[in-house]
Amino acid sequence: ARAGETATAVRLLEAARPKAPRDPDLLANLGQLKLGLGDAAGALDCLGALAEPARSHPSIARLRGDALYGLGRFTEAVEAYRSGLARAPKDAVMHANLGAACRAAGNWQDAARHLETALTLAPSVEARVNLAGLLVDLDQSDRAIEVLTEGLAGAPGTAALHRQLAAAARAEGDARLAGLAARRAVALTPADVSSVTAVAELADNRADLTAAERWVGRALVLGPGHVPAVQLAVRLARRRRRLDEALAVADRWLARETD
Length: 259
Fold this sequence. Notes:
By secondary structure, this protein is an all-alpha fold. It is built from 15 helices and no strands. The two termini are 27 Å apart. The relative contact order is 0.05.
């Protein structure tokens, strides 16, 4: 229902735009609404039409960064967020978003610095998950576990933290902690395909093929196009020497991708 209301608001603002093509409030609101609907290109078009001083406002810089990030233009997103931070150096969300963009752009040192700053200013689940993921990438999974454990101490019912903890513990080689975290994530969000797939992968790691097949089957029901689940299903079928089944799973995924 909320998405429908947002789409209606977008249509109304689009209808009003020709009469006020430079109205900063209209363009900013329209850009934000389009971004909320996943239309990053449309949002960037609106925000790019803004004139100064509105264009340099921190909130607009953040929205531009979000739109550029959504388009995969990570280096430009970094610059947009940095321009916003120049005017709002203690904006925790800006630091968190800049950290994520730096990570995506391959600048891991700056990514860690901004994500840590975000957690210092105003801890958020998104910043903590991003920092933990970055630490795993840097082969510092022990530190990632510390970051996530600290977050879970204050928010034990946060599925995203449990899910990332499972990944960090797996990288650290702690199968027991990984299993506990993955199952807790599933208990909190039973329809999350990533969490269910993580449980299946952990079962595969300990060579419990029956459990792995059961969990990956559930994952494919939740997300037939989820690549890690598809890959695991194919791998399990091949290990069971059910080559026809492996081909069928791969063919179904290809058919979905080419539709």
